[in-house]
Design goal:
It comes from Ruoffia tabacinasalis. This is TPM domain-containing protein. The chain is of the alpha/beta class and about 240 residues long. Helix 1 links the parallel strand 3 and strand 4. Helix 1 runs parallel beside helix 4 and helix 3 runs antiparallel to helix 4.
C-alpha cells in the first residue's frame, strides 16, 4: 500500500490506492490555467537522488523541464529511502521533513517539491509542497492529475526510474494545462454528422423526384398534337349556336 499525502497553499488532502494496475484512471482537467510569468522562479536543480536510483540524468530532467516550461512552476523531485535515518518514518515526520526541505532548497514561492520516499520496496509515500505562487497553477485538481500519473507509471515495468518520473511529469503538465475534452463529444459530432447527411439525402431525393414529375408533365404536354390545344369544346360550340340566333 502506498499513501499520497499532499499539501499546497493551505489546502491539503490524501489519497490511498492499493491497485497494482498501470491502467489507473487519470483525473480530468476542467480548468483553464495560465503558466506563471517568466522570472517567477529562481531556477535550481530538478531532482535530488539520495537513493541513487536515477539511471539517466538527461532523461530525468527532460520531463521535469517540460513541466516547468508548460506551467511556469519548477518541480524538484526528492528521492529517498530514509527520513531522519529511518525507513519507517511516520506521516508527520515525512510532512515535517518536506516542509523543512522546501525552505532549504528554494528561495521563491514558485517551486513544487515532490518527495518520493520508499522505505521498503513497493511501499512508498509521496508528499509534495508548493509555494504560494505555484498554487495559482497547481491547484487540487492539478495535483491529483500529477499523482494519478505517478500511480499509473509506477507500475509500468517497461519504464526505468528516470523514465517513470520524466513521463509522469511530462504527461501531467500537458493535461494540467489543457481542458480535457469529454470522450462523448467526438461521438456526438459523428452521430450529428450522420443525421445531417441523412436529412440532406432525403431532401435531395425528394427534389429529384419532384423534378422528374415536372419533366414528365412537360414532356407529355409537348408530345400532344398542336390541334389538340385549338379544338373547341362542345360547350363552346353550343354557346356559339345560340349566339348566332
Amino acid at each position: 500500500m502506498f499513501i499520497l499525502p499532499m499539501i499546497f497553499g493551505g489546502m491539503g488532502g490524501s489519497s490511498n490506492n492499493n491497485s497494482s494496475s498501470s491502467e489507473t484512471s487519470v483525473t480530468r482537467s476542467t480548468v483553464e490555467r495560465e503558466p506563471l510569468p517568466a522570472g517567477s522562479v529562481n531556477e535550481t536543480d530538478y531532482y535530488t537522488d539520495d537513493a541513487n536510483w536515477v539511471e539517466n540524468q538527461t532523461v530525468m530532467n527532460d520531463g521535469l523541464r517540460h513541466f516547468y516550461e508548460k506551467t511556469g512552476v519548477q518541480p524538484h523531485v526528492y528521492i529517498t529511502t530514509e527520513i531522519n535515518g529511518s525507513n519507517n518514518a511516520s506521516m508527520s515526520e515525512v510532512e515535517e521533513y518536506a516542509n523543512k526541505l522546501y525552505d532549504e532548497l528554494f528561495t521563491d514561492e514558485a517551486h513544487l517539491l515532490l518527495m518520493f520516499y520508499e522505505g521498503t520496496p513497493s511501499n512508498y509515500t509521496t508528499y509534495y509542497v508548493t509555494g504560494s505562487q505555484a498554487d495559482q497553477v497547481i491547484d487540487r485538481e492539478a495535483a491529483d492529475i500529477l499523482l494519478d500519473y505517478i500511480d499509473r507509471y509506477y507500475y509500468d515495468m517497461n519504464l526505468n526510474t528516470s523514465e517513470f518520473f520524466s513521463k509522469s511529469f511530462r504527461d501531467a503538465a500537458d493535461r494540467i494545462m489543457d481542458v480535457t475534452t469529454s470522450p462523448w463529444i467526438p461521438v456526438l459530432l459523428v452521430i450529428g454528422g450522420v443525421i445531417l447527411v441523412g436529412i440532406l439525402f432525403l431532401w435531395w431525393r425528394k427534389r429529384k423526384q419532384q423534378e422528374a414529375i415536372e419533366a414528365k408533365r412537360t414532356e407529355d404536354m409537348l408530345s400532344k398534337p398542336i390541334d389538340t390545344f385549338g379544338k373547341s369544346s362542345e360547350a363552346d360550340d353550343l354557346a356559339k349556336k345560340y349566339e348566332d340566333k
